[in-house]
Structure formats: structure tokens, C-alpha cells
Amino acid sequence: MPGTEEMKNKLLWAAPLAALIAIGAAPQLASATSPVELDAKPQAPRQCFWTRSASGFSAVDDRTVNVRVGARDVFQFEMFGTCPEIDWSQRIALVSRRSSTICSGMDAEIVTQTSIGPQRCTVRAVRKLTPAEVAALPKRGRP
């Protein structure tokens, strides 16, 4: 029969192990098709781009940056918080966390030089602007 100390150790590991198992099963449960999902409108395909294709940027404010990709596409990056001095920066670096493409906010960080050194700004969301949205951008917001 196990001692009380051994039982305490087993109980201490049981809750975190159960949580890990539940987290691992969550994607499988989420992929199940429900009747509500069958009637839902299909989502638009993800808009991705290679980080090396970025050719310019314009900071709208300290939370929003528009990035020119290729000749005519513009992607808008929204930060989790403020990105100090981004609107004064002459250069930024786009850092992809997963590969060399950016498809969503969780894929990207923007690095900018500030008066106290490099600043890493975490991106919350990325979306491709429509041609009409690009045309409507004010001069300051156009990359």
C-alpha cells in the first residue's frame, strides 16, 4: 500500500495531466461538424504573404501599421498594445514566428528602433485591405 507522501505526489500530477489531455483533445473536438456549422457561411481564405515581399510601411498611429506587399497589396497590422515611436521610424523589420510567411497576427512581430534601442511589438491581427480601402487611405496612411 502506497504511503501518504506518494499519494500526495500522484494527486499533484493528476490535475495538470488531466488539463494537458483536455487541451490536446480540444482541437479534435472543435473540428467536429455540428448542424450550426453546416449552415454557417464559409470563411474567406487566409491571406498570406512572404516577409521578403514587404516593400514599404506607414504607421497610422502607435497601434496600427499599413505594410505594402508587392506592387499593389496592403496589409494592416494591429498591435496588442502601443508600439512606441513606430510613427517616427524610418525602418521596421517584420519577424515571422513560424516560417517566412505571415498569415495572421500570431505569426508576426514588428521590430523598430527607438531612442532606447530595439522595440519588439507583438501583432494582434493582420488583414489584407481591399482595393477600395487602399484607395480611401489618407496620404499619411499609405505605404
Describe the protein's architecture and organization.
- With 143 residues, the protein is α+β, with helices and mostly antiparallel strands.
- The protein has 2 domains: 4-39; 49-141, no CATH class.
- It has helices at 4-30, 35-39, 131-136, and strands at residues 49-50, 54-59, 64-69, 73-79, 92-96, 101-102, 108-114, 117-128.
- The protein has a 6-stranded antiparallel beta sheet, with no helix packed on it. It has a two-stranded antiparallel ribbon with strand order 1-6.
- It is globular.
- The termini are far apart.
Name its key features.
two-stranded antiparallel ribbon, globular, 3 helices, six-stranded antiparallel β-sheet, alpha+beta, 143 residues
Mind sketching the topology for me?
Layout: H1 4-30, H2 35-39, E1 49-50, E2 54-59, E3 64-69, E4 73-79, E5 92-96, E6 101-102, E7 108-114, E8 117-128, H3 131-136
Biggest sheet: strand arrangement: 2-3-4-8-7-5
Instruction: Let me know the largest β-sheet.
Output: 6 strands, antiparallel
Q: What's the total helix number?
A: 3
Kindly report the average pLDDT value: 75
Query: Could you state the oligomeric state of the chains shown?
Result: single chain
* N-to-C SSE string, H for helix and E for strand: HHEEEEEEEEH
Beta-strand fraction estimate = 25-35%
Task: Tell me the domain tally.
Answer: 2
Based on CA inertia axes, which overall geometry fits?
globular
